[in-house]
Amino acid sequence: MVKRPRIILLLIIVLTLAALIVDLPKAPIKFSIGPLKVNTIVAGPRLNLKLLGVPLKRDLDVKLGLDLKGGTNLTLRADMSGIADSEKDKALEAAKEVIERRVNALGVTESIVQTSKVGGDYRIIVELPGVTNVEEAKKLVGQTAKLEFRQFIEPEVAAGTIPTIANTKPTGISGKDLKKATTDFQASQTSEDSGGPVVRFELRSASADKFRAVTKSLIGKPLVVFLDNQAVSAPIVQSEIGQEGVITGVSSDEAKRLAIQLSAGALPVKKIDIISEKTIGPTLGKTSIDRSLLAGAIGILIVASFMLAYYKLLGVLADIALLLYILFVLATFKLVPITLTLAGIAGFILSVGMAVDANILIFERMREELREGRARAQAIEIGFSRAWSSIRDSNVSSLITATILFWFGTGAVKGFAVALAIGILISMFTAITITRNLLRVVYRS
Q: pTM of the predicted model, to two decimals?
């Protein structure tokens, strides 16, 4: 009973040190003491990994949303004239997909791109945190989608080769040759074919002969689909294809995404008009951050003071767990990463109260056991086991609410739901694991 809490305590210390390293803010350090001069910038680590041959490089800074960082908000209206009513929603999704890819290629990873229908208007709302050059943003989102089918320059390429513009060449087939693309489910045709989700696409009649010649020369080889010069799929050509073709070997989600991407070239909206633009200055964003930090600090201080005044030594342990909770949540926000908005900060502050609520349930259960004359070590174990069901049920119901908000919400509502869900999960860990083992170590005698 003594060794196990100490081992877990050691693991908690390791996790805390790791969280402190991740949470380390970027701060300049400049001073001189006699001949010693220091002028450097202290910052947390950077990710520099390779996943399946794809480099993953990024910093671990906190990602701020438009309301905190400042930036540009654009509301676009898609011209749907000439598109059938049944295809308008699909065309809007396709346009959104194209804009989202371009924005991400620009490096605005915290961007929000969402669709909206107002009366007969089909709109796309784009939020670009940190982008203050409105003309650059307008040029970025107003271009026409470029869909292209390409083949590898080398006839025989190694399996798993990542297609790029450099190692492929045009086939002469582009988005203007494609008529439509839809998702479907294909039943098993042979014992070797298990069936499953597929993408069915149809070419314009004038392009059928051209596509037939291309696919005939590529049987057994990949035909790479590029959207805005980025590869989105590389299906292997199984047979000669005329006017209609099928892409197999994809999951349900992949099929839906690929159909939208293909439709971006097949069903482009005629044009996109910018009907409103708004720039939020970084000064306003800084004011929001300062006020949010102040509100959060006051709330945490009040909660910590209450726990200390009411529960004495137990309150000290609860406050330690609360401090570790804050470190772990911030580290999770930076690692995922989560784009932090005012709504997200509200979700985080709300989860602080829920983290303390779990400790209160545990402590009150322990007091009940002590009043019945049980030994302190026994009271700790029984108190935790009896409080767990209440903690579990209340947190699971909150997680269900957060899931519903995320599923049906947009923008700031989703940010609130994600921050709240992360806070709830980590609060359960700190209450059940950290507080419990601190109590075991302190009261082990």
A: 0.64
